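Something for you to look into today, if you have time. Just paste the record in under my message, thanks.
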Amino acid sequence: MSHEMEKAYEPQNIEGRIYQYWLDNHTFDAEVDPSKPSYCIVIPPPNVTGILHMGHALDNTIQDLLIRWKRMSGYEALWIPGSDHAGIATQNVVERLIAEEGLSRHDLGREAFVARVWDVKEKHHSHIVEQLRRFGSSLDWRRERFTMDDGLSRAVREAFVTLWEEGLIYRGDYMVNWCPRCATGLSDLEVENVEKPGHLWHIRYPELDGGPGLVVATTRPETMLGDTAVCVNPKDERYQRLVGKTVVLPLMDREIPVIADEYTDMEFGTGALKVTPSHDPNDLQLAQRHNLPEVVAIGKDGKMTAEMGRYAGMDRNECRKQVVADLDELGLLVSVEDYTHTIPQCSRCHTILEPLVSTQWFVKMEPLARKGLEAVDSGTVRFVPERWTKVYRDWLENPRDWPISRQLWWGHSIPVWYCDDCGKMTCTREDPTACGHCGSAKIHQDEDVLDTWFSSQLWPFSTLGWPDKTPELDYFYPTSVLVTAYDIIYFWVARMIMAGEQFTGREPFADVFIHGLVRDEKGRKISKSLGNNVDPIDLIDRYGADALRFALTQLITHGQDLSLAEDRFVGARNFCNKLWNASRFSLMNLEDAPEEKGDEELDPAALTLVDRWILSRFSATMETVISQLEQYNLAQAAEALYGFVWSEFCDWYLEMAKSSLYGEDLERKQATQRVLRFVISGILRALHPFMPFITEEIWQRWRPQDGSLAKQPYPQADARWMDNKAEEQMALLQDAIGAVRSMRADWNIAPGPKLAVTIQSADEATLALMRDYTSSFNALAWTSELSTQTAATETLSGAVSSLVGTMQVFLHLGGAIDVQAELARLDKQIAKVNGDAERSRKKLANEGFVSKAPTQVIEEEKARLAESEKTVGKLQGQREALLKLGA
């Protein structure tokens, strides 16, 4: 059959068609099959209204690589797709959309607003699916889930009611992180703490009789309107006379007590602490210890409350300016100093948060945390790299109860109903029609929804049918590995492990593979605000999905951040082109290949040294690749394949095989074709999980009758082809050719002229090897002729040489170089490098530089000097050799 391939690889003409081929042939479908081991990954569900970014591209590249590898290795491999309803984020998106129409969600009403969100969700969902397909993701689309579909909503309700029944869910008034913009409470994990420049205002609180009172320091003067005390340390002699007395709260003309508590830091500010119980969790604890009243100064809308007198209704930021101005006018603003402090803001909308007391639902974390710790302590869950186990443990060893209610309209409704008659709560798996306590029909449901992470924590088993005991749950659960970045270990990973143990009695996955975050080439986090955001789809349009995937895979190190640079994608695209051209050459030379013989395909007696060498190197490469994949060393696996394909197969084997493929010896040609067929098949299968589109396209051009490459067996290391002797002999040949290439480069000889080479050695077997491969040697070293002789003591006239093991390799220069011009070039180069070396010496001799420069800078300068001196030595050696040639 014809294997004709276009001269250039054009991914844009291939990828869409290949993905459709996979879908049409149900390539990614996974079924319960007890005869095979299972392998399962659940996709970390992207926000349904989001756009997939480079982090998603990395995450999905890793998962697809693992799934494809395991599928080809005999596993029933299932990768479950899905998306997250992303409560706050999605509601924010839709609120911005309707704001463009001059409306708010309150104008629409809850029912109409939620309907609008569903509509937006559907439109965004198709975009996410298309992006995942562009990546080449081999997901079983039949099993796609959404965190608010019927099945997962039922799972969420089952989890809530179960925790309620076990006494692990409670409701109460507690101080939470409140976002005025999102109008909801947040958990600590949804808070983004950022350092910002600000001020420390020193304000005098005078005594009732006009005495000096005391001075407090605050970063938030607007909150002083809600102060109910001033606290000092009982050991602070400066304020002992005031303890138990009162001072006047400026601007509000309200008397507040001076209390003593060891919580107060005598060294911070003035040592006197204003106590605002309604707006600071530590102040709230102080107030509860000292029975202080609580005054709410700032409301949930971020505006001053009605109790704040003339400041009522003012935005908190405007109020701050007015309070400072009024204090200054009264002479009570003692001083203002610049002060950098940490400000909590919403991780979604970046609004500065307000600590407020609010009625919320909570999950008791301590019992669940014990189960989460046991999972890693017993080894049932393993973090890769292992160091992230400590991060996980640190959080679970000191858990805070999790506020799970959100004051939103989009999300899972809390399944609790309140009775208007008896006031008690009813929590059931089905919607009640009457109070479960008194039977009254006058009941109404809690208006809050659940935190998005409440449903996400169930993802590994809810996607497989829990709470029902489905065949899929029995076969594919626990899942095999979770692939994610380190920034959501607390948010999601820990919660899934705790939930899995709590609700199924099993860990949700065996391994947690933690990768780093994607950063730009300067190491900065990628973000829209920095203008360095990279759309992976743009990169796919430019370089192809396989190049994007391979470039990302080459950068993956355990838990370290990845720095993107343009040349990475260029290099990966070049590798795609190299593979395409090598495959095109191979398939063209397999047109008339003999029929395949199955296990008898390769006859060891018919193999040449080069054949035995490439088979040995392929087997050794696969041993490395599989070992590295098993350890999640994905970059090392990619590099092993890259080195084998580019250098050993393309640059060496294909070049050396040409003499057999183009020669007159039919038997020799057919033996080479069999080896070529074996190796190119192995390469395509080995690279498929890394570069699925191009490998499948080549496979379909070659062997469409065999079905999808994605279902072919993954190549294994085979001890039959391991051949140390062949590798040693081939290394001699490569080293000799490499020596000639290096000498040509050192002597600045243009590629054009072919020069003669003489190899001297006392080892006759080595010389025989060189003679056997004279034609390959001449082709690869760009030489005109190769002669061999036993070792001699004298140097051959008119030649330069290089010692390679037991061989002395002579390159006869003839008229290939202009001695005088080359001397001038070397003299100029020596002068330049000497200048570089002298500059480094002066720097290192300068006491000012050595005493002030960082150690790393000094070491770099020493390394530069050493390199310069080494280069000068090499150039001077060349110059001396050149003088001898010209003598």
